[in-house]
């Protein structure tokens, strides 16, 4: 067993509702894994089972080698959890809220105070740490939640929709903090439906659909599998006549579409910009623009669900 | 499934936090002020009335608790009225409050069991009530010293403290009830109302119901003494299902040394008894023991109920 988190055929039923259906997943140490999926696809339920906060209907879970149903304290000591829409005690200050968490984790007062000073600085809340949490904005709450996760110096951080409700700038900043976790060798599991954000931080993603993990892998492999190519190349030329077959014939091009007069979009398996430029120029046209685009997860997502809907 | 690790990990952290919350909450301070003022008024009036009889009465301090002077009821009557309210005020939003503030999943993701959270909340409530009761008792005793001019005897202090314990058990019933409703109902307003409804039911309707039921099930016509006794016994049994009756009997037994029995007494049972001679503390305690354990059993049952419900509850809001 070298997985930090391992699940085997994990299922959770709420009466007739199947929230999670036969999930098998392995997370390696130091990896950032993204759980992706639309609302109600079972992301939160999966997370709750990993932490022993809800009992699986069937299947097994191992977190750091422990079974969260039998040994929840061992798991919860080593795994930090940031729930979606996290709340704090409004009439306590941020510091007091963190102190309570520290005491629940069995830290001594001195140890707690030292760690609090440290984690509060890391999430950028030092100036407001003595203010009541009730007066905190959504973004500040979210940071305080991350501070709480860091407080126990976890081996695993489980973040449920960490950027939901944040403005774009705050979200980017928050993602930066998540990347820092990776630098400290903390294994991160985060759930989201904001795909481009996941793309920015995750090593690997799993796509959830109606409780099943329908796709799983690194971002490139998903793009390969669903879009048939991992690269997008946009070409802009002055004279489009006769260029299309020449471009199509480039090895590695899987798809080509014309987006406007003289503008083409190529889906390719390799980065063949040089070949494209050569062919455009040799055809006598002027090359006005040539850009490489990585396909976004949004596209993968949209394409995948379009196909699924098509089949049914 | 067997769980590993102590279920009480983190219990003290929870107790300390909740205790601090209670002691600093405006809600609690208002209630305590109210209780203190009324208790002060009741005992002050009682002590002025008792001043005339200080010399004759060996249990003058106990009278301080039980003497009522128009228009004010006695100290114990006040306690019996306010204490359930205070206990309900402390417990009605314990668990659903955490749900609504969205702190529950965060707290339960720390290395503690749910047991510790629930018990910690209950203990903090009991401690708060205990501290208030002790302060109240000291206040009354101090006032007694001041107005009556004699010190309480050791026996009176002992009875007073036992009475405090019994009162705490009574308050525990209402606290455990409020806690259970806070697990059952998601809205704090609903759980507060439900707890108050139960309280009102026992305070006002239970006695009426008991009479009606006893008369219906054990009718006593034409002065048949056995039928009358059977009716009385059934009525007593039913009425003792109410925590209010248990508390009232406990108070009577502990604060009135002359009381030798609770419920009907046959003349034959009094053979050899020296009427009006006071019982020692130990005997009074023995007399009140079933009531005391009855209250404790009620607390345990209610707490166990909340425990079972809370274990099964989904943490997510
Ligand atoms: N307590 C419950 N009782 C019944 N059904 C539930 C319960 N909790 C969750 N579900 C159902 O389980 C399914 C999965 O829910 P879950 O919250 O895990 O989804 P999610 O992927 O986290 O969604 P979101 O993006 O909205 O947070 C949903 O269909 C939901 O209705
Ligand atoms: Mg969710």
TrEMBL record, chain A:
Identify the CDD domains for this entry.
ABC_DR_subfamily_A (cd03230)
What UniProt keywords are attached to this protein's entry?
Answer: ATP-binding, Nucleotide-binding, Transport
Q: Which GO terms describe its molecular function?
A: ATP binding; ATP hydrolysis activity
InterPro entries to which the protein is assigned, alphabetical: AAA+_ATPase, ABC_transporter-like_ATP-bd, P-loop_NTPase
Whether Nucleotide-binding counts among this entry's keywords is: yes
Keyword Protease assigned to the entry: answer is no
Where the record annotates domain ABC transporter, the positions are 5-235
Spell out the Pfam families in the cross-references: ABC_tran (PF00005)
Q: Which family does it belong to?
A: Belongs to the ABC transporter superfamily.
* PANTHER family, sorted: ABC TRANSPORTER RELATED (PTHR43335:SF11), ABC TRANSPORTER, ATP-BINDING PROTEIN (PTHR43335)
Protein name (record): ABC transporter ATP-binding protein
What is the native source organism of this protein? Candidatus Segetimicrobium genomatis
Automatic annotation (TrEMBL), chain B:
Q: Name one GO cellular component term.
A: plasma membrane
Molecular-function annotations in GO: ABC-type transporter activity
Which Pfam family, just one, is annotated for this protein? ABC2_membrane_2
- Answer whether the UniProt record assigns the keyword Transmembrane to this protein: yes
Keywords (alphabetical) are: Membrane, Transmembrane, Transmembrane helix
Residue ranges the record marks as coiled coil: none
Instruction: Give a yes or no for keyword Membrane in this entry.
Output: yes
The lineage's top-level taxon is: Bacteria
Q: Where are the transmembrane segments?
A: 33-52, 72-95, 116-140, 160-185, 192-214, 288-310
Q: What is this protein called?
A: ABC transporter permease
């Amino acid at each position: 067993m070298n997985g930090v988190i391992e699940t085997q055929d994990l299922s959770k039923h709420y009466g007739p509702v199947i929230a999670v259906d036969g999930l098998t997943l392995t997370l390696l140490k130091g990896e950032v894994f993204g759980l992706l999926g639309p609302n109600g696809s079972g992301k939160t339920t999966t997370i709750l089972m990993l932490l022993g906060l809800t009992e699986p209907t069937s299947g097994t879970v191992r977190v750091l080698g422990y079974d969260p149903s039998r040994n929840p304290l061992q798991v919860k000591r080593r795994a930090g959890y940031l729930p979606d829409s996290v709340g704090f005690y409004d009439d306590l200050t941020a510091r007091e809220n963190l102190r309570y968490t520290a005491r629940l984790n069995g830290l001594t007062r001195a140890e707690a105070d030292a760690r609090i000073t440290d984690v509060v600085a890391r999430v950028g809340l030092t100036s407001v740490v003595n203010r009541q949490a009730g007066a905190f904005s959504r973004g500040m709450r979210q940071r305080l939640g991350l501070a709480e996760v860091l407080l126990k110096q976890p081996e695993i951080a489980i973040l449920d929709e960490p950027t939901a409700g944040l403005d774009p700038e705050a979200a980017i900043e928050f993602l930066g903090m998540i990347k820092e976790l990776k630098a400290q060798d903390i294994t991160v599991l985060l759930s989201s439906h904001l795909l481009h954000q996941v793309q920015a931080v995750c090593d690997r993603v799993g796509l959830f659909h109606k409780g099943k993990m329908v796709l799983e892998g690194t971002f490139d492999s998903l793009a390969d599998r669903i879009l048939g190519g991992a690269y997008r190349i946009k070409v802009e030329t002055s004279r489009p006549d006769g260029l299309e077959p020449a471009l199509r014939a480039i090895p590695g091009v899987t798809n080509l579409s014309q987006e406007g007069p003289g503008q083409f979009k190529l889906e390719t398996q390799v980065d063949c910009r040089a070949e494209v430029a050569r062919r455009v120029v040799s055809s006598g046209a002027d090359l006005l623009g040539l850009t490489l685009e990585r396909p976004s997860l949004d596209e993968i997502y949209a394409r995948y669900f379009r196909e699924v809907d098509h089949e049914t | 499934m067997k769980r590993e690790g102590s279920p009480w990990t983190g219990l003290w952290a929870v107790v300390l936090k909740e205790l601090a919350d209670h002691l600093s909450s405006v809600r609690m301070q208002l209630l305590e002020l109210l209780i203190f003022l009324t208790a002060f008024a009741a005992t002050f009036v009682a002590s002025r009335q008792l001043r005339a009889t200080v010399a004759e009465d060996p249990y003058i301090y106990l009278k301080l608790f039980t003497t009522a002077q128009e228009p004010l009821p006695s100290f114990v009557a006040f306690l019996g009225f306010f204490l359930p309210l205070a206990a309900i005020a402390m417990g009605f939003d314990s668990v659903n409050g955490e749900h609504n503030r969205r702190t529950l999943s965060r707290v339960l993701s720390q290395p503690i069991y749910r047991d510790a959270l629930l018990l910690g909340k209950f203990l903090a409530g009991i401690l708060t009530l205990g501290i208030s009761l002790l302060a109240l008792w000291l206040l009354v005793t101090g006032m007694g010293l001041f107005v009556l001019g004699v010190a309480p005897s050791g026996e009176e202090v002992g009875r007073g403290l036992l009475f405090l314990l019994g009162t705490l058990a009574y308050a525990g019933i209402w606290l455990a009830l409020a806690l259970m409703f806070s697990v059952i109902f998601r809205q704090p307003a609903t759980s507060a109302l439900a707890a108050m409804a139960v309280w009102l039911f026992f305070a006002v309707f239970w006695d009426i119901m008991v009479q009606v039921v006893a008369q219906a099930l054990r009718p006593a016509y034409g002065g048949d003494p056995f039928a009358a006794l059977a009716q009385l016994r059934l009525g007593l049994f039913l009425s003792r299902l109410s925590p209010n009756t248990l508390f009232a009997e406990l108070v009577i037994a502990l604060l009135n040394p002359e009381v030798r029995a609770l419920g009907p007494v046959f003349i034959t049972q009094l053979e050899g008894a020296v009427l009006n001679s006071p019982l020692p503390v130990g005997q009074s305690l023995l007399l009140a023991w079933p009531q005391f354990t009855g209250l404790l059993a009620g607390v345990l049952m209610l707490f166990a109920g909340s425990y079972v419900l809370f274990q099964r509850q989904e943490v997510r809001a």
